[in-house]
């Protein structure tokens, strides 16, 4: 049975991503990227190696970067509360500490860009219930919820995602291999809108996937790493907190440390995390530890994390201490995103003959 790494769509996506990277190197100004996160808790080292470092790389290459604080996506599966503003500003602080430059990137929030959300309505008319039901996120939520009712917003999540991308006229979206199907619905919506309302000169570009080469890191307990699962090391963690978290990490009973993702997933993930922090290979880290066991691995990982993220933690503490500045960054990004989304919505209305 083919895996996610060897399906034809993934192989084609990898080839296309190689070509896109070459195009970015030639003309970075031709690309506008949309990416983002839900403000459901502090970003962690998995986010850094999985997405944040790549965003900073693309920003430094000269690509226009838009970073979405997806606060409306929080209410797809939970109630918001008084902690939401702190979570939103904390996410902005994480972005800035990681190296996203608000003078070169646009950081904005779902709830503050009305035109983006209004595009959800015409986009819903372009897809069927069956097509949305086949989206991986929706299918997973259906399975996870069991007999519990799924919210309409959760069901419409992939169409809302299309509105995010197309409202900003982004033409490139960094994704992992397992996220390729998510972007396909955005491409379908762009294509169908063009066919129905702008057949002569296509209005929306079909956004392309830029496959990330980021490795998959497990949580410290061997499960998928998650902000709300308590199994990650937040970017804002202190050195002592990092040591406590790593000390609880799941390993196995074998004394000799080896890198074997299939046979020893927990140990291998800790090795990989150490290697990423040290810019080495996990095999080299394993060879250095040898027969000294899990305690030596955890000690090495703790040191590597604290050394790699010391500067980011220091910057984050400075940003987090100035809520006023964080709000200014978000307000400026919201305004830039509004200009983009308003322009898109006005053009959509004109093409749909709903400008009265």
CATH class of the largest domain: Alpha Beta
CATH superfamily of the largest domain: HUPs
Question: Helical segment tally?
Answer: 17
* SSE pattern, N- to C-terminal: HEHEHHEHHHHHHEHEHHHHHH
Textual characterization of the structure:
The chain is mostly helical and about 350 residues long. The protein folds into two domains: about 10-215 and about 320-350, HUPs (Rossmann fold, 3-Layer(aba) Sandwich); about 240-310, Tyrosyl-Transfer RNA Synthetase (Orthogonal Bundle), CATH 1.10.240. Helices cover about 55% and strands about 5% of the residues. It is built from 17 helices and five strands. The protein has helices at about 10-25, 45-60, 70-75, 85-100, 115-120, 120-125, 130-135, 135-145, 150-155, 155-165, 180-195, 240-245, 265-280, 280-290, 295-310, 310-320, 325-350; strands spanning about 30-35, 65-70, 105-110, 170-175, 210. The strands form two sheets. The protein has a three-stranded parallel sheet with strand order 1-2-3. The N and C termini lie far apart (about 55 Å). The model has no long low-confidence stretch (mean pLDDT about 90).
Describe how the helices and strands are arranged.
Blueprint: H1 8-26, E1 32-37, H2 45-61, E2 64-69, H3 71-74, H4 84-98, E3 105-109, H5 114-118, H6 120-124, H7 129-133, H8 136-145, H9 152-155, H10 157-167, E4 172-175, H11 180-197, E5 208-211, H12 239-247, H13 265-278, H14 282-289, H15 293-308, H16 310-320, H17 323-351
Parallel strand pairs: 1-2, 2-3, 4-5
